[in-house]
Fold this sequence. Notes:
2 copies of one chain form a homodimer.
Chain A: H1 6-14, E1 28-37, H2 38-50, E2 57-60, E3 83-87, E4 90-95, H3 99-104, E5 108-114, H4 120-125, H5 131-134, E6 141-147, E7 157-166, H6 170-178, E8 189-190, E9 216-222, H7 226-233, E10 238-242, E11 248-253
Antiparallel strand pairs in A: 1-5, 1-10, 1-11, 2-5, 3-4, 3-10, 6-7, 7-9, 8-9
Amino acid sequence: xTHQNPARLRAACRDxxxxxxxxxxxxxTQCNLIALPRDWAWDFLLFAQRNPKPCPVLDVTEPxxxxxxxxPGADLRRDLPRYRIWRDxxxxxxxxDASAAWGEHPDLVTFLIGCSFTFETPLMQAGIQIRHIAQGxxxxxxxxxxxxxxxxxxxxxxxxxxRPIPADxxxxxxxxxxxxxxxxxxxxxxxxxDRLGIADLSRPDFGDPVTIRPDEVPVFWACGVTPQAxxxxxxxxxxxxxxxxHMFVTDIPDRNWQS
Amino acid sequence: xTHQNPARLRAACRDxxxxxxxxxxxxxTQCNLIALPRDWAWDFLLFAQRNPKPCPVLDVTEPxxxxxxxxPGADLRRDLPRYRIWRDxxxxxxxxDASAAWGEHPDLVTFLIGCSFTFETPLMQAGIQIRHIAQGxxxxxxxxxxxxxxxxxxxxxxxxxxRPIPADxxxxxxxxxxxxxxxxxxxxxxxxxDRLGIADLSRPDFGDPVTIRPDEVPVFWACGVTPQAxxxxxxxxxxxxxxxxHMFVTDIPDRNWQS
Lengths: 259, 259
């Protein structure tokens, strides 16, 4: 069963629904989330400014607030299907409700970051199959050997998502996703996973492996899980993020980001 | 006389050259500049994130530093043709060398913001005359009746630059500038200046008036002078900016920003 209405999907999350969001609420923008204590907000916003491909910021809350212009009425503490709580750079907990963790810090600043799920609908409309949707699993994501440009206390590797694309549709996938620069835009790498430091595509660092057919090329897009890799690499004392693939679904139509 | 080499233009500025930079160093990216005490940096970066059309941030310096990845070797305190020093939201001084003012605050964070001069070269290459370059004056800029989205202590009106465009080339001007979202992108308004609260195009708030011919329409782009309007409206205690039209010229080719 899929939820096609964003508000209803968020309400379902509040009631305990917890699954990857790709393929749900088709046509509405999904977001990565990271909430940090006010003291780390500058470092993170600067990190995002310096690494716009993996970290295109779509909204920033006021300190201590959990509402967003991207979905009036939403509660960012409860309206995602799954959260990760980070302590001293380590994953401490996964939970479908981050309210308790949110209560630990009165001044959390929350960043909502564009997600490549946004251009999956136009890719599918162009006849390009999105394998993880077809297989009903989470998109595969990989930590790469490319460093992000550091900012203040934050540094870490680029994380990418991967979609297998038929060789004769790679150019179309580049062109179509390139129209959405606010949600990662065009791929950062096509083929040659070893050059990104990815030894085995069947063992993603986040999400699930997908089938790659003989006529297909692995295509890599900058991924909004990059902030979580920075949280780990930089041993950030406290952070709340979405669980990879379990995004915040907004009321904003995907087409709003098309350039 | 025009300076076509960015490093030589910056050296000339250091030696006292002071004039609007439109038409100089053709093909190299020009930037708006605002330097603020560290305590105001978060408010400003958030203001820019919330108002990306007027404030597309291309680089942010470390606190107290005056170098930038956009032009290695440049000195941001001296390499612009003209600066404005702001105190308590009021223009205190215009100067070709901001070194002394820079010395007052050891923790200034400097923001370099995209400038619409970047897409003037492609517009001219498409056969569209840029009137202020043809007339050898500064681009006309206007304070509008549109408010920016506030951030922290910062608020203020949108400022726009205006170029008269022949009616049969307006679509081309939109398309061409729209390919440069990192430097203001497509216009925010075409024609109907009264709807922007501009009563008299011959009396710009910044820069110089230009001739508008009978077959031409005034076309308005979001402008990087918007931060200066926010400094005024928000009574920021201290800021250093470029003087309108007197930009920082980088080593980055304009085409790098083309989407």
